[in-house]
Design a protein that fits this description.
two-stranded antiparallel sheet; elongated; mainly alpha; 306 residues
Length: 306
């Protein structure tokens, strides 16, 4: 399939032709161009995991705080798989736009913004184990960059925009999404705990770190102290581990070795919880019965009838 086409509505700004790195495009964006900032005022930016890491570090905040202040959630598929987009104001303007100065987080701008007007495609043909990275071209009426007299290959444009580290750290996540889609619809909605774990491991990376460094996690999985130390210090290594862990959670792949007695200990811990809950419930019912009889008059007490 050398030149595939896709069923895209005719009004879409995305070209239906799949391009490769050698394809030459005509494009240039700069501060003096007449449409400068126009795309930021019509922002529809979906974030990948490494985008969030770069932005929350740039703004000096915890991932949970960044998610609450600067993103909105959406469902990526019928199963409710969670995605996030950059929050905008009521007019659709990105909250990171710094007036006429342009993007306020330009050095750490998201993948979608770096690639524009190129769209990244992850394609996997039947029988292939890995997705191929291809591209398409986005043409929107407000963008005058296509009219600029500069030709550049997509490969050189990617290098110019600094997308390589973003692609490297998001690629396995894209493959997770593609594998989930290629598996077809599930029977019923996935368990809420699986969706919550996907959200935490993909986006709320600081919360995922606390989860991984917890005593319960350490007792469950066979990872070295040196590896835990690396996860504590490096967002990038934590992301790579998150993808490994999600493969195990979503697809049952044995990517993280469990301790030999982990299952038995989990069963024992749950049994302790069940027993404790049962004892609490028995005690609650006993107290309720005692209160019920206390409220009834004593048949031998004549004072109640006088």
């Amino acid at each position: 399939m050398s030149n595939p086409t896709f069923d895209i509505p005719f009004k879409s700004a995305v070209s239906p032709e799949a391009l490769d790195g050698d394809t030459t495009i005509n494009f240039r964006c700069y501060k003096g161009i007449s449409c400068f900032n126009a795309c930021c005022k019509q922002a529809d930016v979906t974030l990948a995991p490494y985008d969030l890491v770069r932005l929350k570090r740039r703004l000096g905040m915890d991932s949970s705080e960044f998610l609450a202040r600067y993103t909105v959630p959406f469902q990526m598929d019928m199963d409710g798989t969670p995605g996030i987009k950059l929050r905008t104001d009521d007019n659709g303007t990105c909250l990171q736009l710094d007036g006429d100065n342009g993007c306020g987080v330009y050095e750490d701008r998201p993948t979608v913004c770096r690639y524009y007007p190129v769209a990244l495609l992850s394609l996997r043909e039947k029988g292939e184990s890995e997705a191929r990275q291809q591209y398409s071209l986005v043409r929107e009426a407000h963008c005058k960059g296509h009219d600029e007299p500069r030709q550049i290959s997509i490969a050189d444009y990617r290098s110019e925009q600094g997308v390589e580290p973003y692609d490297e750290l998001n690629r396995e996540w894209y493959q997770l999404i593609l594998k989930k889609k290629s598996a077809g619809p599930t029977v019923g909605r996935p368990p809420e705990t699986s969706l919550q774990l996907f959200f935490m491991a993909s986006y709320d990376i600081d919360r995922f770190r606390r989860f991984v460094l917890s005593e319960n996690f350490r007792n469950t999985y066979q990872l070295t102290d040196a590896f835990y130390a690396e996860l504590e210090q490096s967002d990038e290594e934590l992301l790579r581990f998150a993808y490994r862990f999600l493969r195990q959670v979503l697809f049952g792949e044995h990517t993280v070795q469990e301790a030999a007695d982990a299952w038995e200990r989990r069963v024992a811990q749950r049994r302790e919880v069940w027993d404790a809950r049962r004892e609490i419930e028995v005690a609650r019912r006993a107290r309720a019965e005692d209160e019920k009889y206390k409220s009834q008059p004593d048949p031998g007490d004549k004072s109640c009838c006088e």
